[in-house]
Inverse folding.
């Protein structure tokens, strides 16, 4: 009886972990396709500020607002 509960918990955890990985892959693919990467100088020339200290390294403000800076 106890083994069944442990196996059920393990399989549920594995299933949820699989969904989490699939969601992360989808989010990464959407970011790569939806927002072209701009250079730091492009961000500045467009009136923004490269914020490489934030997750995703976004350009804040200006023409390229929200796009990742590389």
């Amino acid at each position: 009886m106890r083994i069944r509960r442990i196996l059920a918990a393990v399989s549920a955890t594995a299933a949820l972990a699989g969904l989490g990985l699939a969601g992360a892959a989808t989010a990464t693919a959407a970011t790569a396709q939806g927002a072209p990467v701009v250079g730091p100088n492009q961000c500045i020339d467009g009136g923004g500020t490269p914020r490489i200290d934030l997750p995703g390294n976004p350009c804040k403000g200006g023409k390229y607002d929200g796009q990742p800076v590389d």
User: Anything to note?
Assistant: Residues 55 and 68 are 9 Å apart (CA to CA). The beta strands are 49-50, 59-60.
